[in-house]
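Q: I have 109 residues here and want to know how they pack in 3D. Can you give me a structure?
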Amino acid sequence: MEWVILILAGICEIGWPLGLKISQISTLTLYKVLGIAFAVLSMALSGLFLWIAQKSIPMGTAYAVWTGIGAVGTFVAGIILFKDQANLLRILSVFLIIAGIVGLKMAHK
């Protein structure tokens, strides 16, 4: 169950840069405010879920997986939603992050 909570924390970690980006690109004040509110809520939930997961997952493992999920998810969201660059080196680099996450999970007893 702790790994599900950690994955949920990582997914919430994707929300805050997404909310900040939405607040930056919008011309409507309402969307700016909603984007920032979404970012703050995502940060709070992400931190809460990480805190819960760290009760039974070693801190270094939990933090690395949490940031890895956030980094990969934000990378994918940037490509899909904001037309960020998706060249071969960037994609290969993200696969290395994914390999690290999988390796940490496999190494956990």
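Q: Anything worth noting?
A: Residues 2-107 form one domain. The mean pLDDT is 95.
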